[in-house]
Please model this.
Amino acid sequence: MTTTDTSLALDKPRSSGRPAARRSNFELYSWLFMRFSGVVLLFLVLGHLLIMLFLDGGVHRINFAFVAGRWSSPFWQFWDLTMLWLAGLHGGNGLRTVINDYSRKDTTRFWLKTLLYVSVLLTVGLGTFVLFTFDPNIG
Amino acid sequence: MASTTASAAEAPQREAAPRAKGTLYRGDLGMWSWVAHRITGVLTFFFLFVHVLDTALVRVSPEAYDTVIETYKHPFMILFELGLLAAVLFHAFNGIRVMLVDFWANGPKYQKPMLWTVLALWVVLMIPAAISMLTRAITEMFGGA
Model:
């Protein structure tokens, strides 16, 4: 084992071992993004859950025809696309923070984050592709 | 013993100084709401991953999509849907609280009453939701007779 476990103790904010703060403002922007996307997602996701789980019999009425009917409207296409992107990035950024906090080896952190980024790219990319190329007459 | 004068005299005083009430965050309610926020967020992320994949089957064929969506219609799945709703609702309401703590001048002062509000709102919405969903699942399982 050449990799070392990072100690759980943190350096003091001004100790020389700590990298200089504010090399970029990325963390600030990601923090702001979590707040703003959170507000928008609140309406999109709770609305989505209300429609899908409670109105007119909940999940039981959902099938291919239901989705085809829904996505014939640009309003719902836009709703779902916005929700997909915001939820993907909000959740991805949240998990990035969790990984940064708890992985103690640099290699673990690297691979967990690679896995995370691949899965976010896969889901957001695939979802976007499906929304733009959906064909109700595919059958 | 007598040689340590000033510092020794101050030490017990410093130790005895009581912590100001409300400044201890670790182990307090605020910390647990933070833990719960993380757990509900991570759980929702994993659901989202699966959900995007199952919805993407509409691009494969209507049969493929309908087959997979059938699994969501099993009465037992109501419990998972209820769990998802519970996680998302807490995450949403506590998220508003987090924003108020961050952006509202009095937010940190009222973080605890706001947490009770979040929990009360959560319970108030979860009860009718659970009743509605469980009733549907139960009538489906036993109502056929």
About this structure: Chain B has one domain: 29-142. DSSP finds five helices and no strands in chain B.
